[in-house]
# Entry
Amino acid sequence: MPQTSIKNLKLNAHVHLIGICGTAMASLAGLLKDRGYKVSGSDLNPYPPMSTQIKSLGVQIQRPYKKENLNPKPDFVIVGNVISANNEEAQELIKLDLPYCSLPQAIGEMIIANRDSFVVAGTHGKTTTTSLLAWVAENCGLAPGFLIGGIPKNFLQSFRNPPANTFIIEGDEYDTAYFDKVPKFIHYKPKNVILTSVEFDHADIYKDFAAVKSVFLQLMKLIPPKGSLVYWGDDSTVKEIAKECVSKKKFSYGFDIDNDYTIKINSENEVVTIFTIYFKKEFLAEFLTPMVGRYNILNATAVIAQAHIQNLNLNKVKAALQSFQGVKRRQDILGEYAGVLIIEDFAHHPTAVKETIHAIQHKYKNKKVFSVFEPRSATSRRKIFQKDYVEAFKEAHEIIIAQAFDQAKISDDDRFSAEELIKDLENLGRSAKLFSSTDQIVDDLVNRTKKNDIVLIMSNGGFDGIYDKLINKLKSRI
# Structure
């Protein structure tokens, strides 16, 4: 059976998700279960927070991928983008002639449908910006549905079915499925869009920066004339791409004074950042947020601009911004143990790594920060950003690099070299160490950290359970 529409699926039908622990797939599982469907799913290597969310839904994760997972036969199958055509479960799906589609198609047809969609796109900041936009919309009475690639602490889950006409979604540029080779956001019926940034990423599917830009140009052309676009105007590439949007509601934001929405940071400390927004060079409002770092203030401004365009109450927007609790795995404070503060972050692109280190070191002035990084994403495991990571880490206090995760399928001449990174950083006079296991990293941190130090751990995966290992070792040090 060919790829099939899901919009006419009968209530109470059994839907099986292959790759259920992906951030978006786990959210879709919740949306479907909340709508009354029977949900099952399989995955290879589930890890928190999404595996925890799946279990809280009462859905058992079938491991690993195998044809038996489709027995009994489900009524419909949704295939995640991590699944290849030669996956045993995917091949069984075809053999059994089951109806199937991709996650983005299911979201577009079944969840977004004809609602007002707000799509947050860009290389960086999507999860935080989407979470904040959902919280602002909630506080302004829009009762939004949402799907977010992380767990916003204000909602405690990454999804909500739309009780009204608004749906807010993180618009990923990664491709949809092995049988549906377009960016996910193409399916999301983008009416109102935030474009945070455009850089090269996803080296496993995009051959060069031109290919990345081309998909964002597609997104711009999908925004209807009555829709809206808020874009980061400090960046020449983003400005160039935004020209393709024909909407009359098209506004830039950033620190440069030529933007429609201009930012001025008034003060910042460990507790709060206070900043002012000017619209068309006229004072709009002053805002307070517990978020720190230049990129997070840009994310907040994008949301403020979109809220202003939609004529939402600015006092309610202010209150939402001040009460925003952030997102799990985004500058997420895991706790203080033996006087050492542990912070987890999803940063993996060199720009995100650089900005995260800067934000944490700037927030916690006069404290030593140990920056720990696992090259795990498809791009970070390749040499494309070899020298960019030198720039990303060059201002870090203490640097710890793990060996890149699973480079077996990457050719030798295309692999990222952690050894080369360490050598380049040492040549700059930086304190940098390389370890081959998380146990070695934990032992080094336990031996070298002192009271009031900070450990910033950056990875877009499970990092071999380093968080619990470090916490347990520090507890035993007390």
Summary: The first strand starts at residue 14 and ends at 18. The mean pLDDT is 93. Residues 114-323 form a domain with the UDP-N-acetylmuramoyl-L-alanine:D-glutamate ligase fold (CATH 3.40.1190.10). The chain has three domains: 14-102, 114-323, 332-477.
